[in-house]
Amino acid sequence: METLKKASVHHRAAIAALRRQVSSLEKELRNAAKGTARSARASEPDESDEGGTKRRFSAGRLAAHRTKLGISAASYGKLVGVSGQTIYHWEQGKARPRAAQLENLASVRGLSKHEVAQRLEAE
């Protein structure tokens, strides 16, 4: 009878270990499925990005450019077409601009201080 008890304990421990392993593998599979879904969405060509240049964004450069121009975040937001709060969030790295907004940012970066002042006066 003692050998049966030992065998039963051993089998129960083996079953528990296999359950933990299955649970771990299922978790890895879910994470892998999420990762492939994200990469599939990211690799899909964007219709608005046809023939356009891929833009990079730097929060520090945005803040430096706004400081260089000497204007408020609200004014900079008017030039880009967003709110001043959005500019603050971009500068702090709390949010990132969308593709269309990156194009607007690139066009504002090409303006001189004088051109920026003219555009702000016109609004």
- H/E element string? HHHHHH
**What about the largest sheet?**
none
Which CATH top level class of the largest domain fits? Answer: Mainly Alpha
Q: How big is the Rg?
A: 28 Å
CATH architectural grouping of the largest domain: Orthogonal Bundle
Structural class: mainly alpha
Beta-strand share of residues: under 5%
Helix content: over 70%
Overall pLDDT level: 86
Q: Gap between N and C termini, in Å? A: 93 Å
How many structural domains can be distinguished in the coordinates? 2
What gross morphology would you assign? rod-shaped
Looking at the structure, the CATH topology of the largest domain is 434 Repressor (Amino-terminal Domain)
State the CATH superfamily name of the largest domain. lambda repressor-like DNA-binding domains
Summarize it.
Helix content is 74%, strand content 0%. With 123 residues, the chain is mostly helical. It has two domains: 2-45; 59-122, 434 Repressor (Amino-terminal Domain) (Orthogonal Bundle), CATH 1.10.260.40.
Detailed description of the structure:
This protein has 123 residues and is mainly alpha-helical. The chain has 2 domains: 44 residues; 64 residues, 434 Repressor (Amino-terminal Domain), CATH 1.10.260.40. It is 74% helix and 0% strand. The protein contains 6 helices and no strands. α3 packs across α4. It is rod-shaped and about 95 Å long. The mean pLDDT is 86.
Write the topology of this structure.
Layout: H1 2-43, H2 59-69, H3 73-80, H4 84-92, H5 99-109, H6 113-122
Task: Using brief descriptors, characterize the structure shown.
mainly alpha, 434 Repressor (Amino-terminal Domain), 74% helix
